[in-house]
Amino acid sequence: GESVGLHLPTLSVQEGDNSIINCAYSNSASDYFIWYKQESGKGPQFIIDIRSNMDKRQGQRVTVLLNKTVKHLSLQIAATQPGDSAVYFCAENRGGGSQGNLIFGKGTKLSVKP
Amino acid sequence: EPEVTQTPSHQVTQMGQEVILRCVPISNHLYFYWYRQILGQKVEFLVSFYNNEISEKSEIFDDQFSVERPDGSNFTLKIRSTKLEDSAMYFCASSLSGQSNQPQHFGDGTRLSIL
């Protein structure tokens, strides 16, 4: 069952370092994954997505890696900046023709030290 | 860049009262969604909507909830008789299509506080 009052994992990095945020998903039928960034008082902001027929996708300063064998997703942020400080969520789509019901992970709080 | 807008940003309501949360999805998007996030918890799916009808809904979306697209731009979530446990952030999202590989874009949410 769900936990009440989740304590978010926290990742603290120095400005300019690379960040890696990890996510495990549970549904082997999931065929589409998204990383969202959520700043305080804001809604989830789309960062990057990846389909299950890919292992890696790169954006501007961000890379998503997908390992379907172990059902693991990671987000790499290069040259992390103070503006990257936020909570990062992975979300999966259940697949099987589902019309976009996203299942969100617990989130990781990224803190960037100047 | 086009964005999803939600009003009000904060709604305070007495328990048992009806509340309507409003959203304006991105203009060329066809699929609309409501999610909620109870403080400190995950974002949870409530309902998806396409072509003026509900496509999918979760267990949370019981008879107290309803959605409507009253005109060409607005998408609303109504809670008929609010309970204390309805207090949460409510996020509206939209996507261009309903294919499972289309990103959903979220608004900044409405904070609903039930007293």
Walkthrough of the structure:
The complex is a heterodimer of chains A (about 110) and B (about 120). Chain A is an all-beta fold and about 110 residues long. Chain A is about 0% helix and about 50% strand. Chain A has strands spanning about 10-15, 20-25, 30-40, 45-50, 55-60, 60-65, 70-75, 85-95, 100-105, 110-114. In chain A, the strands form two sheets. In chain A, strands 1, 3, 4, 8, 9 and 10 form a six-stranded mixed β-sheet that branches. In chain A, strand 3 and strand 4 (about 45-50) form a beta hairpin. Chain A is globular, with a radius of gyration of 14 Å. Chain B has about 120 residues and is mainly beta. Chain B has no helices and eleven strands. Chain B has strands at about 5, 10-15, 20-25, 30-35, 45-50, 55, 65-70, 75-80, 90-95, 105, 110-115. In chain B, the strands form two sheets. In chain B, strands 2, 4, 5, 6, 9, 10 and 11 form a seven-stranded mixed β-sheet that branches. In chain B, strands 1-3-8-7 form a four-stranded antiparallel β-sheet, with no helix packed on it. Chain B starts with a strand and ends with a strand. At the A-B interface, strand 3, strand 4, strand 8 and strand 9 of A face strand 4, strand 5 and strand 10 of B.
